[in-house]
Amino acid sequence: MLDALLAGFEAAMRVDTFIWMSGGLLLGMLMGAMPGFTTTMGMSVLMPIAFLVGDPLIGIPFLIGVYKGGIYGGSVPAILISMPGTAASIVTVFDGAVLARNGQPRKALDMALVASVISDFISDLLTIALIIPVAAIVLSFGPPEIAAIMFMSLVIVSVTATGPVLKGLLMLGIGLWLGFVGADPFSAMARYTFGTTELYDGFHLIPMLIGLFALPEIFNAVRAGDRKRGRVASLIGEGLTRKELKASMPTILRSTAIGTAVGLVPGLGQTVAAMMGYIAAKNASKHPETFGKGELDGVAAAEAANNAVNGPTMVPLLTLGIPGDNVTALLLGAFMMQGLRPGPTLFATSGPVVFGILIAMLFANIIFYFIGRATIPLFSRVVTIKKSLLIPMTIMLAFTGTYLARSNPFDLITLVGFGLVGLAAKRASFDVMPMVMGFILGRELEYSFGQTVSLAGDSLLRFAFTERLGMTAIVIATPIIGTLLGMRMSRLRRQEVIRGE
């Protein structure tokens, strides 16, 4: 494992990797700074670029740059016009917008940037430290353990999805069925193709992801139109001082710890981390009454917590194939398109490449700081751009990127079809992430289970109980799934009680 880490460090030290990653950071900040344009939309629309590049040490860091830049970029409109650019920056509005109204927008933006970079850097270091022992354990897994972990991953994603558990399981079932379309992995016989030769290789991942994640967001942006925004605060006043940063360091470190812990748990995400970090900072403060009235620690707590989630979400994603949210589900798809399959076998087959990506992610934070400092004046103007000018460009990118991926017109039909599915799911309050996970991991689960059955011979049950690691995985999976189901049902019952009152 240490050899793979050293090889990864050498692989990450490439000029083209840093150039593409810088471009991803800029594009992510742009998407985040535009109210109504989410990080999920930006990543799904830009994903074909990462696919067309072909090199995972360029394409994946590019998307990670979009991810990091988008989460931070949401703080710009949150501070300047009291309108969060992303859900992760909702909490930043509480104090950031007040600071801007009080003539200190530059100080608030500086704090958001510095807190984001510090927390992101520390959490990325912890991610690499955590991923090494976890990867060492999963390297010993065989087909039975892999099948058990994939089953656990699918159930966890369904249970932690937005809405009732049954809706999540239904979307999972649809995703599994869509994943089975095409050639059988063992016999090569066509399944569910309805005589269509274009479906022999199954649905392509790019049009599916863009259709499900980007097109519904674009439609909602069109429907919302150019809503009237408040006055944009000009960048007057002094910036953040060293004394103020030093005073806020305990808050930044506390929120970093909170965000790191939240990132390790699938289904929670940046918004939950930001709220938890903000509440913890307020409770620890000697003057909690100042929170919500322009407190710098409030901005530091929210931005440090939501950015600290970015790195640790890679631990369950890369080692077990479990994404924490829609953005990491898109990253999972990007890894798959580059021929890297997140899960127990990833580090055995592509260890140096994966560590190269993780180390590049670490260095991205240094680039992040300098780009952020240089572009704060630029992005303070971006919030004034009308969505009506950007939406046509976004639509063009979605369709052009989809077509260029394989130059297959059928992919455009697939894009529109999945776009309608995503729109219908959004209207009916169905989370599409279980569907995406079922589609991506369904075939892997089928193949691993088929290998397990082949190894078991005549007695699958006896084989499962005599395989020590296989049974360990199943025993560990059962209480985790049971606990998550119990928590989910309890929360739904509380919501029903509240509605009844």
Structure description:
The protein is 75% helix and 1% strand. The chain has 501 residues and is mainly alpha-helical. The chain has one domain (2-225, 242-500). Strands 1-2 form a two-stranded antiparallel sheet. Strand 1 and strand 2 (190-191) form a beta hairpin. Helix 2 (15-33) packs across helix 16 (346-382) and helix 10 (205-224) packs antiparallel against helix 17 (387-406). The radius of gyration is 23 Å and the shape is globular. Mean pLDDT is 79; it is low at 497-501.
- Class per helix and strand makeup: mainly alpha
- Order of strands in the sheet with most strands: 1-2
Number of helices: 21
- Per DSSP E runs of 2 or more residues, the count of β-strands stands at 2
Largest sheet at a glance? Answer: 2 strands, antiparallel
Succession of helices and strands: HHHHHHHHHEEHHHHHHHHHHHH
List the helices and strands and how they pair.
Layout: H1 2-12, H2 15-33, H3 39-53, H4 56-73, H5 75-80, H6 92-101, H7 105-138, H8 143-159, H9 165-180, E1 182-183, E2 190-191, H10 205-224, H11 242-263, H12 269-284, H13 296-308, H14 314-320, H15 326-337, H16 346-382, H17 387-406, H18 409-427, H19 433-456, H20 460-466, H21 468-500
Antiparallel strand pairs: 1-2
Helix pairs in contact: 1-16, 2-3, 2-4, 2-16, 3-4, 3-10, 3-15, 3-17, 4-15, 4-16, 6-7, 6-13, 7-11, 7-13, 7-14, 7-16, 8-9, 8-19, 8-21, 9-19, 10-15, 10-17, 10-18, 11-12, 11-13, 12-13, 15-19, 17-18, 19-20
